[in-house]
Design goal:
Layout: E1 19-26, E2 29-39, E3 45-55, H1 57-76
Antiparallel strand pairs: 1-2, 2-3
Length: 89
């Protein structure tokens, strides 16, 4: 499968996640566990594991920087609202 426009060309499988199932730091790497809500044949929704994202501390900082930029642009366009009462911490 080719990469979406704007992304480097990698011939790797994609992992979908609409939930962060866990986040940890082990052996010098950040591990983000992803999960997805899927519906079975009866329409019942369940959360299933979908994969891990494993990053070095430098990779985590870079990811955060890029996500912050994307969130800022989405907020500027009025697509999301990043009010403090909507964020944890």
């Amino acid at each position: 499968m080719s990469s979406p426009p704007g992304l480097p060309e990698f011939d790797l499988p994609m992992i979908f996640g609409d939930k962060v199932a866990g986040l940890g730091f082990q052996a010098g790497t950040f591990r983000v566990a992803l999960a997805a809500a899927v519906a079975d044949e009866t329409g019942q929704t369940q959360v299933v594991k979908s994969g891990f994202l494993i990053l070095s501390p430098e990779g985590m900082v870079e990811l955060r920087s890029q996500i912050d930029q994307m969130l800022g642009e989405l907020e500027r366009r009025g697509l999301i609202n990043l009010k403090p009462d909507k964020l944890d911490g």
